[in-house]
Amino acid sequence: MSRNVSTIESTALEAVSTQDLYRELLVRIGEDPNRDGLQRTPERMEKAMAFLTRGYKMNVNEVLHGALFDVDYDEMVIVKDIEFYSMCEHHMLPFFGKAHIAYVPNGKVIGLSKIPRLVDVFSRRLQVQERLTRQIGEAITEAINPQGVAVIMEAAHLCMMMRGVEKQHSSTVTSAMLGVFKTQLQTRNEFLSLVRQNGVL
């Protein structure tokens, strides 16, 4: 019975356009979607949400395709201060900040421009920062099997700034240390030292 109800609900939902859902949302918060400033808001909301969650339609392999190179290099590669924007899955409010990523190659490297794009694959979804950090590290590990990967993300969360505790100057820092960054203190400290330069962290 529940399966049939679920199917009926799903079919009914498909018959309703996304813009109709946003229009209904405006009504439920007490607005008039027909007033001058809101007439095209459902259309704009649909486009904005599609952009903000475009990571669901992005594929890691496609993003990295053609940008994995064989090299005879085994020193640390760091790309830091990568700006990212994401949406908290609990309140669907933005969180944003910077990512700092390092890896030690094991015969292959990733084209530098692809690393920020990899961040976008996972950040442009409904997320929690802890999972986002781990997903980026694991994706690099799967792509090139390096000796290790380190990811640090620092972000401001509007769900803490605009509601709830309303703390304007707090930030959240998460990290994922894989391979040699987890097992070798010297490698981890080198990464942290380089990331802290120029006032980062």
- Strand segment count: 7
Strand order of the largest sheet: 5-2-3-6-7
**Span of the ends, CA to CA:** 54 Å
- Please estimate the helix content: 40-55%
- The ordered H/E elements are HHHHEEEEHEHEHEHH
Overall geometry comes to elongated
Overall mean confidence score, pLDDT: 92
> Residue ranges: pLDDT <50 for 5 or more in a row?
none
Beta fraction of the residues? 15-25%
Count of discrete alpha- or pi-helical segments spanning 4 or more residues: 9
Given the helix and strand composition, which structural class is it?
alpha+beta
Largest sheet: 5 strands, mixed
Task: Output the radius of gyration.
Answer: 21 Å
Structure description:
β2 and β3 form a beta hairpin. The strands form 2 sheets. The protein has a 5-stranded mixed sheet, with helices on both faces. Strands 1-4 form a two-stranded antiparallel ribbon. The protein is built from 9 helices and 7 strands; from the N terminus they run ααααββββαβαβαβαα. The longest helix has 16 residues. The chain is elongated and about 60 Å long. The protein is α+β, with helices and mostly antiparallel strands and 201 residues long.
